[in-house]
Protein backbone atom coordinates (compact mmCIF):
# COMPACT_ATOMS: atom_id res chain seq x y z
CA UNK A 1 0.00 0.00 0.00
CA UNK A 2 2.54 2.62 1.09
CA UNK A 3 6.19 2.15 0.32
CA UNK A 4 7.33 -1.44 0.64
CA UNK A 5 5.09 -2.23 3.63
CA UNK A 6 3.21 -5.53 3.52
CA UNK A 7 -0.11 -4.59 5.10
CA UNK A 8 -3.02 -6.70 6.24
CA UNK A 9 -6.10 -6.13 8.36
CA UNK A 10 -5.08 -5.19 11.89
CA UNK A 11 -7.99 -7.24 13.22
CA UNK A 12 -6.38 -10.35 11.77
CA UNK A 13 -2.96 -9.55 13.28
CA UNK A 14 -3.66 -8.56 16.87
CA UNK A 15 -0.21 -9.95 17.71
CA UNK A 16 1.23 -6.86 15.99
CA UNK A 17 -0.68 -4.42 18.21
CA UNK A 18 -0.40 -3.21 21.80
CA UNK A 19 -3.27 -4.51 23.96
CA UNK A 20 -5.08 -1.11 24.20
CA UNK A 21 -4.98 -0.78 20.39
CA UNK A 22 -6.43 -4.27 19.86
CA UNK A 23 -9.17 -3.51 22.39
CA UNK A 24 -10.02 -0.22 20.64
CA UNK A 25 -10.43 -2.04 17.33
CA UNK A 26 -13.00 -4.32 18.98
CA UNK A 27 -15.17 -1.29 19.83
CA UNK A 28 -14.44 0.71 16.66
CA UNK A 29 -16.96 3.57 16.27
CA UNK A 30 -19.78 2.75 13.85
CA UNK A 31 -19.78 6.37 12.66
CA UNK A 32 -16.07 6.29 11.74
CA UNK A 33 -15.34 7.10 8.08
CA UNK A 34 -13.79 3.65 7.66
CA UNK A 35 -14.63 0.21 9.04
CA UNK A 36 -12.28 -1.43 11.55
CA UNK A 37 -11.19 -3.95 8.93
CA UNK A 38 -9.78 -1.03 6.90
CA UNK A 39 -7.25 -0.31 9.64
CA UNK A 40 -4.17 -2.06 8.33
CA UNK A 41 -0.97 -3.16 10.05
CA UNK A 42 2.45 -4.09 8.72
CA UNK A 43 5.33 -5.77 10.56
CA UNK A 44 8.58 -3.79 10.61
CA UNK A 45 12.05 -4.13 12.08
CA UNK A 46 11.66 -2.68 15.62
CA UNK A 47 15.10 -1.11 15.27
CA UNK A 48 13.66 1.02 12.47
CA UNK A 49 10.57 2.26 14.33
CA UNK A 50 11.78 5.85 14.66
CA UNK A 51 10.24 7.96 11.90
CA UNK A 52 13.26 8.99 9.84
CA UNK A 53 14.84 5.51 9.86
CA UNK A 54 11.46 3.88 9.16
CA UNK A 55 10.64 6.14 6.20
CA UNK A 56 14.04 5.62 4.62
CA UNK A 57 14.03 1.84 5.07
CA UNK A 58 10.46 1.25 3.87
CA UNK A 59 10.16 3.94 1.19
CA UNK A 60 7.42 5.89 2.95
CA UNK A 61 7.40 9.66 2.43
CA UNK A 62 7.65 11.80 5.57
CA UNK A 63 4.47 13.54 4.37
CA UNK A 64 2.65 10.17 4.61
CA UNK A 65 3.96 9.41 8.10
CA UNK A 66 2.26 10.79 11.21
CA UNK A 67 3.67 11.05 14.70
CA UNK A 68 1.66 10.76 17.91
CA UNK A 69 3.20 12.70 20.77
CA UNK A 70 1.88 12.77 24.32
CA UNK A 71 1.78 16.19 25.94
CA UNK A 72 1.39 16.90 29.65
CA UNK A 73 0.12 20.28 30.80
CA UNK A 74 -0.10 21.62 34.32
CA UNK A 75 -2.29 24.17 35.99
CA UNK A 76 -1.73 24.21 39.71
CA UNK A 77 -1.72 20.63 41.01
CA UNK A 78 -3.67 19.26 38.03
CA UNK A 79 -1.93 17.56 35.11
CA UNK A 80 -3.83 17.22 31.84
CA UNK A 81 -2.72 14.93 29.03
CA UNK A 82 -3.39 15.02 25.32
CA UNK A 83 -2.18 13.22 22.24
CA UNK A 84 -1.08 15.34 19.29
CA UNK A 85 -1.13 13.82 15.81
CA UNK A 86 1.04 15.66 13.30
CA UNK A 87 2.70 14.77 10.00
CA UNK A 88 6.39 13.89 10.25
CA UNK A 89 7.19 17.00 8.20
CA UNK A 90 5.83 19.18 11.02
CA UNK A 91 6.16 19.76 14.74
CA UNK A 92 3.31 20.22 17.24
CA UNK A 93 2.96 23.75 18.60
CA UNK A 94 3.08 22.57 22.21
CA UNK A 95 3.68 25.94 23.87
CA UNK A 96 1.05 27.77 21.83
CA UNK A 97 -1.91 25.89 20.37
CA UNK A 98 -1.71 22.79 22.61
CA UNK A 99 -1.16 24.75 25.84
CA UNK A 100 -4.18 26.98 25.07
CA UNK A 101 -6.38 24.01 24.11
CA UNK A 102 -5.55 22.23 27.39
CA UNK A 103 -6.04 25.48 29.33
CA UNK A 104 -2.78 25.01 31.21
CA UNK A 105 0.02 27.37 32.21
CA UNK A 106 2.80 25.08 31.09
CA UNK A 107 2.87 22.23 28.57
CA UNK A 108 5.64 19.92 27.42
CA UNK A 109 6.17 16.46 26.01
CA UNK A 110 5.30 13.89 28.67
CA UNK A 111 8.35 12.05 30.06
CA UNK A 112 8.95 8.73 28.29
CA UNK A 113 8.28 6.51 31.32
CA UNK A 114 5.07 8.41 32.10
CA UNK A 115 3.80 8.19 28.50
CA UNK A 116 4.54 4.45 28.36
CA UNK A 117 2.95 3.75 31.74
CA UNK A 118 -0.22 5.75 31.09
CA UNK A 119 -0.83 4.47 27.54
CA UNK A 120 0.18 0.81 27.90
CA UNK A 121 2.17 1.26 24.70
CA UNK A 122 5.87 1.19 23.80
CA UNK A 123 7.82 4.41 23.40
CA UNK A 124 8.33 5.04 19.71
CA UNK A 125 5.12 3.20 18.88
CA UNK A 126 2.45 5.22 20.70
CA UNK A 127 -0.68 5.67 18.61
CA UNK A 128 -3.93 7.60 19.10
CA UNK A 129 -5.96 4.39 18.78
CA UNK A 130 -6.60 2.99 22.25
CA UNK A 131 -5.51 5.96 24.38
CA UNK A 132 -7.26 6.74 27.69
CA UNK A 133 -10.79 7.95 26.89
CA UNK A 134 -10.40 11.11 28.98
CA UNK A 135 -7.54 12.42 26.82
CA UNK A 136 -8.27 14.70 23.92
CA UNK A 137 -6.68 13.65 20.64
CA UNK A 138 -5.56 16.80 18.85
CA UNK A 139 -5.18 16.16 15.14
CA UNK A 140 -3.53 18.64 12.81
CA UNK A 141 -5.80 19.37 9.84
CA UNK A 142 -3.00 18.33 7.43
CA UNK A 143 -3.21 14.77 8.80
CA UNK A 144 -6.95 14.59 8.10
CA UNK A 145 -6.32 15.94 4.58
CA UNK A 146 -3.86 13.10 3.83
CA UNK A 147 -5.57 10.13 2.10
CA UNK A 148 -3.47 7.49 3.95
CA UNK A 149 -0.97 7.86 6.75
CA UNK A 150 1.36 5.53 8.61
CA UNK A 151 1.33 5.79 12.38
CA UNK A 152 2.47 3.72 15.34
CA UNK A 153 0.68 0.56 16.41
CA UNK A 154 1.43 0.73 20.11
CA UNK A 155 4.53 -1.45 19.67
CA UNK A 156 7.80 -0.88 17.83
CA UNK A 157 7.57 -4.03 15.66
CA UNK A 158 4.76 -2.74 13.41
CA UNK A 159 3.03 0.30 11.94
CA UNK A 160 -0.61 1.07 11.21
CA UNK A 161 -1.76 2.33 7.81
CA UNK A 162 -5.02 4.26 8.06
CA UNK A 163 -7.01 6.87 6.17
CA UNK A 164 -6.08 10.32 7.48
CA UNK A 165 -9.74 11.35 7.88
CA UNK A 166 -10.30 8.37 10.20
CA UNK A 167 -7.80 9.81 12.70
CA UNK A 168 -9.89 12.96 12.91
CA UNK A 169 -12.97 10.86 13.67
CA UNK A 170 -11.52 8.89 16.60
CA UNK A 171 -13.41 9.24 19.90
CA UNK A 172 -12.14 12.39 21.61
CA UNK A 173 -10.49 13.73 18.45
CA UNK A 174 -10.44 17.45 17.70
CA UNK A 175 -9.16 18.57 14.31
CA UNK A 176 -7.18 21.79 14.61
CA UNK A 177 -5.88 24.04 11.85
CA UNK A 178 -2.37 25.15 12.76
CA UNK A 179 -1.75 22.53 15.45
CA UNK A 180 1.62 21.93 13.82
CA UNK A 181 4.26 24.06 12.17
CA UNK A 182 6.60 23.06 9.39
CA UNK A 183 9.71 21.40 10.82
CA UNK A 184 12.78 23.43 10.11
Keywords:
184 residues, globular, alpha+beta, 4-stranded antiparallel sheet, 11 strands, 5-stranded mixed sheet, 30% strand, single chain
Give me the secondary-structure topology.
Layout: E1 8-9, H1 19-26, E2 40-43, H2 51-58, E3 66-75, E4 78-87, E5 90-92, H3 94-102, E6 106-109, H4 112-119, E7 137-140, H5 141-144, E8 148-152, E9 158-163, H6 164-167, E10 173-176, E11 180-182
Parallel strand pairs: 4-7, 7-10
Antiparallel strand pairs: 1-2, 2-9, 3-4, 3-6, 5-11, 8-9
Class per helix and strand makeup: alpha+beta
Q: What is the rounded distance between the termini?
A: 29 Å
Multimerization state? single chain
Strands ordered across the widest β-sheet: 6-3-4-7-10
Unreliable stretches (pLDDT < 50, length at least 5) are none
Determine the mean pLDDT. Answer: 94
Gyration radius, rounded: 15 Å
Can you count the helices? 6
Envelope shape: globular
Work out the strand percent. 25-35%
The biggest sheet, with number of strands, parallel, antiparallel or mixed sense and barrel status, is: 5 strands, mixed
Q: Considering DSSP H and I runs of 4 or more, what fraction of the residues is helical? A: 10-25%
Order of helices and strands: EHEHEEEHEHEHEEHEE
Say how many strands there are. 11
Structure description:
With 184 residues, this protein is α+β, with helices and mostly antiparallel strands. The chain contains six helices and eleven strands. It has helices at 19-26, 51-58, 94-102, 112-119, 141-144, 164-167, and strands at 8-9, 40-43, 66-75, 78-87, 90-92, 106-109, 137-140, 148-152, 158-163, 173-176, 180-182. A hairpin with a 2-residue loop joins strand 3 (66-75) and strand 4 (78-87). The longest helix is centred in the middle third of the chain and has 9 residues, at 94-102.
Amino acid sequence: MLGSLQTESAQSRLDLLAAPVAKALEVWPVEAPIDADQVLVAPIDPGLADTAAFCEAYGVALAESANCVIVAGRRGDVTRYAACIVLATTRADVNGVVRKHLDVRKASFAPMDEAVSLTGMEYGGITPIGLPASWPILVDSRVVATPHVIIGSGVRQSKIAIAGPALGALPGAVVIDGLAREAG
